[in-house]
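Below sits my pick:
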Amino acid sequence: MNMIYNTKTIRRQDRVMDEQRAREIIENAEYAVFSMIDEDGLPYGIPVNAVFSGDSAYIHCAPEGKKLRAIALHSDVSLCVIGNVNLLPDKFTTEYESVVLKGKATIVTDEEERKNAIHILLEKYSSEFMERGLYYAAKSLPRTAVIRVDLSEFSGKCKHMHNKK
């Protein structure tokens, strides 16, 4: 990944995450919250399965809907992925790891890129069922949209208590 690791806007600089750990969280994320501005100019965030490939993220969805309408109007988006979380109710806090990525979203129209995106999504989420998944994907591709987010920057933040009392 060549996107910029930019932590300058994090208020609590003591909670800035090591860049290598932020990249690990991105690679291992089970889901992301995809945030955009909807067609009414309002914030809209939704959990999605995303896969990261180089400086891009891929998301699949129905070929019509709110995400696609939002992207058509406002291509600037963000993704938030969560690492480890540990609630500490007796200390009234939470240990956490999170990474926020920023980029521009486009709807992928190139058939080869669409197929490749679905393939890497299958590798990540259904690797034990690739043969069946590829068959299913081939049948579903005409009714599946693929969104590519070209990522420009990311930041990571964490809070670890380290046995503080």
Summary: The two ends are 38 Å apart (CA to CA). The chain has a mean pLDDT of 91. The CA atoms of residues 18 and 121 lie 27 Å apart. The helical segments are 19-28, 66-73, 111-125, 130-140.
